[in-house]
# Entry
Amino acid sequence: MKISLSDHFTYKKLLLFTLPSIAMMIFTSIYGVVDGYFVSNFVGKTPFAAVNIIYPFIMILDSIGFMFGTGGSALIARFMGEGDHKRAKSVFSLIVYVSFGLGVILSALGIIFIRPIASLLGAEGELLEDAVTYGRIILMANPAFILQMEFQSFMITAEKPQLGFFVTVGAGVTNMVLDALFVAVLPFGLQGAATATALSQVVGGFVPLIYFLLPNKSLLKLGKTKFDGKALLRTCTNGSSELMSQISMSLVSMLYNAQLLKYAGENGVAAYGVLMYVCMIFLAIFIGYSVGTAPVVSFHFGAQNHKELKSLLRKSSVIIIISSVGMVILSECLATPLSLIYVGYDPELLSLTSRAFSIFSFSYLFSGFAIYFSGFFTSLNDGLTSAFISFLRTLVFQIAAVLILPLILGIDGIWLSIVIGEFFAVIVGLVFIFVKKKKYNY
# Structure
């Protein structure tokens, strides 16, 4: 079924259009999940904890790809809705070139300073050495991963979500196969896991780059451009919430690791790592849906189609409610089986991880709406509102909860803090939805 941004979206059409985006996000999250499985089961608990210690820092550097992708897609789709396709292609090219250059610079700085940063995050001894080893290899592919993250949004805007899906699946399969080869078959250990992930990110970033450089049948193509400071600023403003969300989530993860080292040692960090791997897949569904609907919302906003905006918001709310309840039920049922897959070799760690799952699962009741509300305002080119929701969601609500609740509930307070943070983020999002309703006519 051919689906265009200008179409009227029924439930079926909305799900079909966003499905490739959801699948792309799921396969992207598989990088960490697969690495975690092989490192935990074939290399050891300490290297597994090291990966979880350094990964939030790497995600901070990668987050500009998400910012340029979501913010740029909203702007480009709006230009398309206004009928200005020439400027849409020019801005698309500018964003890709600028983000790749920034990726090279950030990679170099990350590789240089990764040791003191890992030490600052609490790593020492063998944990520190493993974190540095894994981080340096991953950072070599950072420019490619930045491209991959933004192309996931641009593929949808170009009305080629299926192609984006196949590229992401190819990258994910590359990661899984190479992880099995380098870690389970060949004795490359932690270096093998990092190399597998880095190579798969090269596939995910450079294949779509080549596609857009060559003649293609999509709505976008890389070519000559000119510097457009206003467009770049609007892109960064539009995507600031996604940048804020990614950075703050990484900072919160660092704080969680520090708290867990304090309350439960390496076992706590390892248990949190398992939770985050599973959480990445579950949240990828919400993020993928938000990213998938964003160009549609931006297009109809640019075309002043207020009736369709109202329809999209209403239908999305129904889809998220159903998905959220389903995720909680599924997570509760899979708590012990998933824990066994990762840490079945350690009874104490297994018990801790299963307990964490049973509490953490309830966060899915709220996280879908928290993510969608922020993404919805990005789509409306209201990056400041979107960023404010993201800021409160992570840097205020979750940090306050993770610092206060453990004093009352011990380690259970750490698992519960995410639930509390997401709940208050939804309240704030609903307030903005009602306050801004007349302004945007949705």
Notes: Residues 240-302 form the longest helix (63 residues). The two ends are 27 Å apart (CA to CA). The chain has one domain: 11-440. The mean pLDDT is 87.
